[in-house]
Amino acid sequence: MTPGIQMDAFDDLLPPEKRPPLSGAEALAALKAWADAGSVRHLDHMFARFMAERAPHDPAPVLMAAAMLVHMEGRGHTCLVVDELVSRAHELLGWTDLALEAWDTVAARLPRQTAHWLAALRSSPVVGHEAAGSEPLVLSGERLYLRRYWLDEQRVGRQVARRVAAHDTVDEAVARRWLDALFPPAPAFDWQKFACAVALRARLSVITGGPGTGKTYTAARLLALLWAVDPAPARLRIALAAPTGKAAARLKQSISTALADLQAKVGDTLPLTDWVSHLESARTLHSLLGARPDTRRLQHDAAHPLDVDVLLVDEASMVHLEMMASLLDALPPNARIVLLGDKDQLASVEAGAVLGDLCRGAEEGRYDTETRRYAEAVSGQRLPDAYAGGGPALAQQTVMLRESRRFEGAIGQLALAVNEGATARATVLLRDARHAGELAWVSDTSAHGAVRLAVAGYRPCLDLLRDRPAADEQHAAWAHAVLTAFDRFRLLCAVREGEWGVAGLNEAVLAALAQQKLLSPRGEWYEGRPVMVTRNIASAGVFNGDIGIALRAPGEGAPLRVYFLEGDAVRSVGVSRLPDVETAFAMTVHKSQGSEFEHTVLVLPETPSRVLTRELVYTGITRARKRFTLVTGRERAFAEALAQQTRRYSGLLDVLAG
Questions:
Q1: Comparing C-alpha atoms, which of 30, 26, 24, 23 is closest to residue 3?
Q2: Which residues of the chain have pLDDT under 70?
Q3: Residue ranges of E strands in 76-170
Q4: What is the pLDDT of residues 213-253, one digit of tens each?
């Protein structure tokens, strides 16, 4: 019997399938026992108890479904597919053997038919049925939602459908002339040129592709094209945004660099330099929308829209459902939005995998007759027949870039093998001595190997730290050099806790650096402490995910300040204004998205975990520019991760289809 469930003594002698149906009280007792054992969160159990207080007569399936819905939301899903819980709970939950035994004991006394669960949910006063109402839960077909996620999904679906269907009139001859000027002749089909042509005609476009496929290169040429075809280009209000400060800074720098290079190629035909000077710095999505402290309300919404004509959003795979709904609501109806991102990277930490949903089937193209005609007229190239089809309106505005110009070496081959789940090929690449300059695999029964790599990786930064300039006017250049050197190396973790997690490795790396006299930590704050901001602090101009280093300000006896890179510039914030930070010698793979490092070390823990997935490994690999090292506490961890793909449940595509 599952601990915490009180049953009649006679019933206890019967096998589970012979016992009476599970009561609501027994369901709550089981959830409490599972929460105490760590299989679910206490929040999951308490939510079911809250539902029971609102609907005392609801049967056990309603309470169990409510708890499992919140449990799945905590793992990034926007809904619970009831049939999946009933028919394949083991795969859905991914619990340990003991936890699954506890589930089976309880599930034996729950209905075996999905229809019975759905009937119970439909009869519950806490469950609404897609109509406006105040019920906390919504049942849509076989999907059970928290009401706010159902509303967010409806908002995103409606906005996307409306925007991909709203085609602008394009002077195809003019567009063709400018696209030919912006792109050199290509020996094969130029997907970047095609992406610009497609994005020119509608108010929402998605450009996806792996590292080095030229997403920001394409975006820069799209901006040049929009300026070129507009009768009054100087009036265009263009905004650049990304989920994190680091990604936003990289976006602005990449766009500016690409446009500067393009100016040299197009000469006087387009005054790109003048137009670029009017581009504002890229901002985080929170900053763009006007996030306010201690509230979910934003300054910009449908009633107070953004003042933009064109919005480029980079690293869109990190944008969760609620943020995407808020972003699309705040965009003026006639404005254009372009989403850039790698559909194969990790999805957002919070619920939803919007980019992954929008890019479903992007590899196939599925471009209809009109899209193929338009693309040939505007880009001057014939789309290969393999990508023809009758895809939905969204598919006509989605382009996957397919040729990586940066990842042509061993790192690129490894990323491709991992993305395809080709474990044997990936393992051979990692262990091949011919790739020793780019790839390495370190197996270690403890995390000492990762710590040794970190000490070596951060040493150039810490050597610069000790070489403080005597003149105050050289301080900014020195701080820039320290920050740049720090960003050349990073230790990435799959988990947060334990010896192999962020917390344990940050402590171990700091201890090793102190032992070798490379740092002198005294108290919480010390010079050279790298920190990651963990909460938006708009008043200080820093946002969740920003990374800086604590340095002494110029001047005798000056206090510590945290310095951040913003493109080529450096800005600083007093440590007293940063209460929500954590040390960042090591960081999670999730938090690394939007960043790149010359040498990236990915640490996989010694114990199995459901967070070890193909997407996590792929994301870790693609953070590396020149060198990637895998550190494992268990040989099988790599193969197990590649065998486990992330699937996030949502109904967004059904909303779009409807």
A1: 30
A2: 1-19, 131, 293-294, 406-408, 538, 567
A3: 80-81, 127-128, 137-140, 143-146
A4: 889 889 999 999 999 998 888 888 999 999 887 788 788 88
In sequence order, what are the beta bridge partners of 336?
310
pLDDT of residue 9: 42
* Helix or strand holding residue 563 (H, E): strand 560-566
Looking at residue 406, its pLDDT comes to: 63
How many CA atoms within 13 Å lie on the side-chain side of 519? Answer: 27
Predicted local distance difference test score (pLDDT) of residue 154:
94
Q: Using one digit for the tens of pLDDT, what is the confidence trace for 514-554?
A: 999 998 888 889 999 999 988 777 677 787 788 999 998 88
pLDDT value, residue 408? 67
Helix or strand (DSSP H, E) at 402: none
Q: Which of 181, 180, 228 is nearest to 200 (CA)?
A: 228
The gap from C-alpha 53 to its chain's centroid, in whole angstroms, comes to: 36
* Sign of the Cα pseudo-torsion (351, 340, 301, 139, in order): negative
Residue 318, pLDDT score: 87
DSSP label at 126? T
Pairing of strands 143-146, 80-81: antiparallel
Strands 581-583 and 586-588: unpaired
Contact residues for 334 (Cβ-Cβ < 8 A; gap 6+): 203, 309
From CA 253, how far away is CA 281, in angstroms rounded?
9
Is pTM, for the whole model, over 0.90? no
Determine contact, residues 311/338, Cβ cutoff 8 Å. yes
Cα(76)–Cα(92) distance, rounded to whole angstroms? 13
Distance CA 80, CA 455 (A): 44
Sign, Cα dihedral of 285, 289, 290, 292: negative
Could you tell me where the beta strands, DSSP code E, fall in 12-88? 80-81
Tally of CB atoms within 10 A around 280: 11
The pLDDT, as a whole number, for residue 352 is 82
Tokens (6 digits) for 146: 């928290």
Distance CA 180, CA 178 (A): 5
Query: How far does CA 438 lie from the centroid of its chain?
Result: 26
Q: Are the C-beta atoms of 642 and 418 separated by less than 8 Å?
A: yes
Q: Are β-strands 489-493 and 597-604 bridged in parallel, bridged antiparallel, or unpaired?
A: parallel
**CA–CA distance, 155 with 294 (Å, rounded to integer):** 24
H-helix or E-strand spanning residue 238: strand 238-242
Burial class (CB in 10 A: 0-12, 13-18, 19+), 352: buried
Round to whole Å and give the CA distance between 250 and 390.
37
Residue 112 CA to residue 93 CA, distance in Å, equals 17
CA distances from 472 to 480, 554, 556, 565, 650 (A): 14, 5, 10, 19, 55
Distance of CA 277 to the CA centre of its chain: 30
